[in-house]
Amino acid sequence: MKRLTLLRHAKSDWDDPVARDFDRPLNRRGEKAAMLMGQFAAQRKMQFDLLVASPAARVMQTLETFFAGYGQTLDARWDRRIYLASAPTLFDVVRDLPDSADSALLAGHNPGLEELILDLVPDDGVNPLREDVEVKFPTASIAVLDLPIESWTQARENIATIASFTRPRDLDPALGPETR
User: Fold this and answer.
1) What is the rounded distance in angstroms from the CA atom of residue 165 to the CA atom of residue 167?
2) Closest residue by Cα to residue 174 from 32, 75, 45
3) Exposed/middle/buried for 137, CB within 10 Å: 0-12, 13-18, 19+?
4) Which of 58, 69, 86, 130 is deepest in the core (most CB within 10 A)?
5) What is the number of other CB atoms lying within 10 angstroms of the CB of residue 6?
6) Is residue 61 part of a domain?
């Protein structure tokens, strides 16, 4: 069994006049959400053997703040393929994970992360968490997927189950979509 935890970057600052989207930083609400999600992961005793992440500034900042809340840091394996990747590209990233890692954290962007979840988890009407992801995979959300495989190379569509799906607003309503 392999466990894949997906973390979408926190809310970024569209008002920051950066030249490239890749360099866009987090806003204050994003920093608060990333910290809260790190604290949540620590409380849930989430464990990660490996971190693979997009090198975009907002993902790097999300991880820095997430790990401050988590209470420990994991060295990232930066993978440029994750930046604005589609689900097929993210499948390639997952299949390239080393089998020595039983629990991997992948940090990146939408719509790719949401599409990856929807591709991995069958649409069988049994799991309401899949339906929640289908509505929206908001910024700073964490989805934990269990894959009944021995090797990451075996990752394919419709084999995973969602163990949990947590949005920042689930922990603090002030971080919901109606707030700034």
Assistant:
1) 7
2) 32
3) buried
4) 58
5) 25
6) yes
Please indicate, yes or no, whether the overall pTM of this predicted structure exceeds 0.85. Answer: yes
Number of separate domains in the chain: 1
| Residues whose CB falls within 8 Å of the CB of residue 6, separated by 6 or more in sequence, listed in order | 105, 106, 107, 108, 113, 116, 117, 142, 143, 144, 145
How many other CB atoms are found less than 10 A from the CB of residue 71? 10
CA pair distance 30, 134, nearest whole angstrom: 22
Q: Is residue 31 part of a domain?
A: yes
Supply the pLDDT for residue 176. Answer: 79
Say how far residue 6 (Cα) sits from the centre of its chain.
3
Which residues sit in the known binding site? 58
Q: What is the pLDDT of residue 177?
A: 74
Report residue 31 as tokens. Answer: 């920093």
Task: Give me the CATH number covering residue 113.
Answer: 3.40.50.1240
- Bridge partner residues of 144 (DSSP): 5, 164
Which residues of the chain register pLDDT less than 70? Answer: 16, 178-180
Query: Is residue 13, in this structure, part of any structural domain at all?
Result: no
The pLDDT of residue 15 is 72
Q: Which residues are annotated as a binding site for substrate?
A: 58
Amino acid 146: pLDDT: 98
- DSSP H helical ranges for the chain: 28-43, 57-70, 87-95, 112-120, 128-135, 168-171
User: Cα angle at 162 between 170 and 166, to 5 degrees?
Assistant: 15
